[in-house]
Amino acid sequence: MKQATSYDWIDYFYRNSPEPAFPWDQAIRLSGSERVAVIASIQQFQLGEGASGARMLERAQRFARESGDLGLLAALKLFLREEQRHSRILAQFLQLENAPCLRQHWIHSIFRALRGIAGLELCLKVLVTAEVLARPYYSALRDATNSPLLRSICQRIFEEEGAHLCFQAFALSRFQSRHCRLTQAIIKMLHALLLFSTAVLVWAEHKAVFTSAGRTFREFWAETLREFDSLYLNSARLIESPIAR
Ligand SMILES: [Fe+2]
Ligand SMILES: [Fe+2]
Description:
By secondary structure, the chain is mainly α. It has one domain: Ferritin (Up-down Bundle), CATH 1.20.1260. The protein has 10 helices and no strands. The protein has helices at residues 6-15, 32-49, 54-67, 70-96, 106-116, 120-143, 148-176, 181-205, 207-212, 217-237. The longest helix has 29 residues, at 148-176. The protein is globular, with a radius of gyration of 18 Å.
């Protein structure tokens, strides 16, 4: 199988860039109980999806100069643009529901600070932790509502987050080869610890969404772990292609 390159990812993000068509005109308002379960949660995710990634791009620029992989920098920019589109779509949905967007939230600030303290590899690990959790979250949000609009938004973001995980596996594989096996195992263990603590936090903050969708914490964690394992598997294999997803 052909090994994906940064340019394959640039191609993928370009092909996926046309604005998705959502049934905005079928915007049936959420019921009272749905609003209670999902609005505050969507507000948090809308804020998180909109990160500019400026500091990550600075690090990526340095990495691109050192490694000569200029394509990775361009692919990261397109990836961030897609994340910002998620934020815009959720903002548009919140507007229809007459709910404001948040300007800041303490969880978002912690993640921002974590991303700011280290080099590109750690920055990507922190970012990918949120990505791993995003898929189980959006599938639960989709199942927590009867709104055709919100369901189709969640389905689209869920699918794009799947491609993002493949992209992150590809980006992280750039660093994996620099570490010996023992260091790789320690990094993975620490990453799993960060993931578990974040999963507990996400569960506590968004419990109403998960329970409305009929998810237990055990199911949520099992789904999260599956995404995490496939991230490392794909990263180790170095063969994942955006076209294959
Ligand atoms: Fe996203
Ligand atoms: Fe993502």
